[in-house]
Every structure is written in structure tokens, then in C-alpha cells.
Write a structure and sequence with these properties.
- The radius of gyration is 49 Å and the shape is globular.
- By secondary structure, the protein is α+β, with helices and mostly antiparallel strands.
């Protein structure tokens, strides 16, 4: 009896063991599947089912203008004791003030003409305090400063404490120029600042009130012995010449 169903929908049980025309079952099934897929509608249906079975991975949307993730950056704070790049090497020292006892950086005198003097309260030259203070007051507004360094190295003529020295200078000579504490247990020649002054001039102090005059750049240093009075022409003319030079940029 003739089966009205199309041959493509016959069940496997309706095939003879060898298949139509004696073809083996696997080969015949492959031919039938190829015939079904040959139609455009069948290919579209298979493609649709394949897309449902294996969905495409979802990619995160990106925008060309999107900002990159922010990264925290730590900026190192400058060290409090870091030397000022514009400070001359000669002045890169921090010393305690005689008047206040507080640390003071010599870098604050960069760009000034500086007269450095080792002082004593019981010396034949002690009255030079008056002349040093007069120089300071006369030229300070033009960028001049006197720095006093009490020392007991020469004739043991500065035996007092820092407080006593500060009081003596203030009440006897009205000293207002900056002074620094006496170095305890160390000779003046071992002081880092004085070591550099001696190296630059080739002259070390031989007594109290030796004077070193430093120009605005902190590089040129002139040396004047204890016997040179603060008002002596040789010293004053050098101060005025250095003051006339423009401060370093």
C-alpha cells in the first residue's frame, strides 16, 4: 500500500536494513539531512536555533571620551631641613640665636653683605661692639648685617654663659645685630662656618674681633684682623663697594 507521507518523514523502522536501493542507513541519513539543509528556509531556522543555543558574549560598552580610572598619587612633602637651592654653600648652617636660643638658618642672609666677627666681653677690643653696632644701623637698610660669634678661645676672655653675654651686649653697647650662642666644648676653628672662612681666605683668627666680610653672592670673602676698627676706612670702603654690587638673581 502506498504511504502518502513524504519520504523525508518516514521513520527508521520503515526502512529496510539496507535502506532504499540497498544504501547503508548512515549514508542514507546523511543524504536526507543534506537535502533538508539545502533549502534557504531550513538554513535560516538552523542558524536561528544555533544563536539561541550559544548567545554571543556581552561586551562592556566603551566610549572614546570616557575618563580613565583615577589613580591616587602621593606627592612627597619637602623636608623641613632641606637646604634652599638658592642659598650659598657658605651659609648652609643652622645655629642657635644668642638672644632667643632658637635655631636660625644663615640662609636668611643670602644676598646680603655679611660681616662675621668673633667677640669677647673682657678683651681690649671689646669696645669695638659700639662701632659694629654703628655699622649695622647705618647700612642695614641697604642689605648689610653683622653676625657676632662669642668665643672663649683667645685669652679666656668670654667666660660667661650665653644669657650673661646677651645681657652684657644689650645693656652695655645696645647691640641689636644678630649674635649666636657660644660653642661649648669646641674651639672656634672647628666650627663648620669658620672652617670654610679660613679655607676661603687662608687666614684664621689670631685673637678676638677678627672680621670676615662676605659679599652678596656668598663666594667672595675678605679678611680683616682684630686691630682693624669697625669705622676704619679700609673696612668701610670694602663694605660700600660690596653693597654697590647688585644682589644675585
Amino acid at each position: 500500500m502506498h504511504d502518502p507521507r513524504p519520504r523525508a518523514f518516514l521513520t527508521r523502522s520503515q526502512f529496510i536494513p539496507g535502506g532504499p536501493q540497498g544504501r547503508p542507513w548512515p549514508a542514507f541519513a546523511a543524504i536526507m539531512l543534506a537535502a533538508v539543509l539545502a533549502t534557504p528556509d531550513s538554513r535560516a531556522e538552523v542558524a536561528a536555533r544555533g544563536s539561541e543555543a550559544s548567545p554571543a558574549p556581552v561586551l562592556a560598552a566603551t566610549s572614546p571620551s570616557a575618563e580613565p580610572p583615577k589613580v591616587a598619587v602621593r606627592v612627597a612633602a619637602p623636608s623641613p631641613g632641606a637646604p634652599d637651592a638658592g642659598c650659598p654653600p657658605l651659609f648652609r648652617h643652622t645655629l642657635n640665636s644668642l638672644q632667643t636660643g632658637q635655631p636660625q638658618s644663615l640662609c636668611q642672609y643670602s644676598g646680603k653683605v655679611v660681616l662675621i666677627v668673633n667677640t669677647a666681653s673682657h678683651c681690649g677690643y671689646t669696645n669695638q661692639y659700639a662701632g659694629l653696632e654703628a655699622l649695622y644701623r647705618k647700612y642695614k637698610d641697604r642689605g648689610f648685617v653683622v653676625l657676632g660669634f662669642p668665643s672663649n678661645d683667645y685669652g679666656a676672655q668670654e667666660p660667661g654663659s650665653n644669657k650673661e653675654i646677651a645681657e652684657f651686649c644689650r645693656t652695655t653697647y645696645g647691640v641689636q645685630f644678630p649674635m649666636f650662642e657660644k660653642t661649648a666644648g669646641t674651639r672656634l676653628a672647628a666650627h663648620p662656618l669658620y672652617s670654610e672662612l679660613v679655607a676661603k681666605t687662608g687666614q684664621a683668627p689670631q685673637w678676638n674681633f677678627h672680621k670676615y666680610l662676605v659679599d652678596r653672592s656668598g663666594r667672595r670673602v675678605e679678611s680683616f684682623g682684630s686691630a682693624v676698627e669697625p669705622g676704619q676706612r679700609a673696612l668701610v670702603s670694602t663694605i660700600e663697594r660690596m653693597l654697590a654690587d647688585k644682589p644675585p638673581a
